[in-house]
Amino acid sequence: MRFLIDEMFAADVADQLRDVGHDPVHVSEVGLGAGADGDVLGFAATEGRVVVTENAADFLPLLDAQIAAGVAVAPVVIVLKGKLPRRSGGDEPRPRSQARRLG
Predict the structure, then answer these.
(1) Distance between CA atoms of residues 96 and 55, nearest Å
(2) Is the pLDDT of residue 96 over 60?
């Protein structure tokens, strides 16, 4: 599967997904590291990638607007990071666990 991993996930998630046979890129690998959500969505649509993000608040209205306008959009997976395993003693989810949930 071709994924575009959004910035709230560690770049290591893309590495872990590659290890299990997927074709992911992290936004930081393609110059979209602090990019506008519309640019992320447009890149994914052009490249045939599924956006993986936690940012439902921004992506859902953007998707609704683009669909209403008849614009082709990329599929988007909204991940609830609160459900991912955390690093011991820390607040950040573990990249390997993030990838396992996606792959």
Answers:
(1) 20
(2) no
Beta bridge pairs of residue 3: 24, 50
Rounded to 5°, angle at Cα 76 from 72 and 82: 160
User: Would you say the pTM of this structure is higher than 0.90?
Assistant: no
DSSP annotation of 85 reads P
SS3 label, residue 2? strand
Q: Does residue 68 register a pLDDT over 60?
A: yes
Give per-residue pLDDT as tens, 26-39.
Answer: 999 999 988 899 99
Inter-residue contact 48 to 23 (CB < 8 Å) = no
- What is the spatial distance between Cα 66 and Cα 60, in angstroms, rounded to a whole number? 10
